[in-house]
Design a protein that fits this description.
Oligomer: single chain
Radius of gyration: 17 Å
Mean pLDDT: 82
Order of helices and strands: HEHEEHEEHEE
Structural class: alpha+beta
Largest sheet: 5 strands, mixed
Low-confidence stretches: 139-144
Distance between the termini: 53 Å
Length: 189
């Protein structure tokens, strides 16, 4: 790794940290603002996956994608991008060397976005705790981070009227499922 590449990664991590701290401030003060617009979530998922692909290759993760045609509704594009980026970053961190799957599907009036890794997994006793601010299921000595990503993710998803759950067991990976309300947008006339 070149010195410049290392510096770029350091600046990127610092930028993420600053953004997370700003979000913590906004959320705790009740000032998280959503900018709703017509968003094709399928297109957004493809874009985020392609953007993160170089990092996946660096840590030896094959990214697998199952996304249908357009899934358009009124959401906050930047916040959903943040949700998926947080989930993918965690999947790459805790599932390094194993495939990571991203799936999107519509079920009635809901959209389900899943990110699945085959990494270290999460003890069932810790699964609710990981969605709390500054909480982690593993030692920060072995895995970096401050324990804010999943809390921010849950707060964004909740603000959008949705929910997030995790299914996992130690050594068997983790599947995070974001459920969002979906109202099919009328097509062009």
């Amino acid at each position: 790794m070149s010195r410049l590449t290392g510096m770029e990664r350091g600046v990127g991590r610092l930028s993420v940290l600053v953004d997370e701290l700003l979000d913590v401030s906004r959320i705790t003060s009740g000032r998280l603002v959503l900018h709703l617009e017509d968003v094709d979530l399928a297109e957004l998922v493809r874009e985020v996956v392609e953007r993160i692909r170089p990092e996946a290759e660096r840590v030896g993760c094959e990214l697998r994608l199952q996304v249908p045609g357009p899934v358009v509704s009124r959401w906050d594009r930047l916040r959903l991008e943040q949700v998926l980026s947080n989930l993918l970053s965690n999947a790459l961190k805790y599932g390094a060397g194993y495939p990571v799957e991203v799936a999107l599907r519509v079920s009635g009036t809901q959209v389900l976005l899943q990110v699945r890794d085959e990494g270290i997994g999460i003890d069932p006793a810790l699964q609710e705790r990981i969605f709390e601010r500054f909480e982690r299921a593993v030692s920060d000595r072995h895995y970096g981070g401050l324990g804010m990503g999943l809390w921010i993710t849950r707060e964004i998803v909740t603000a959008l009227g949705g929910s997030i759950q995790v299914e996992s067991a130690p050594g068997r990976g983790a599947t995070f499922t974001v459920t969002l309300p979906w109202r099919e947008m009328p097509g062009p006339r």
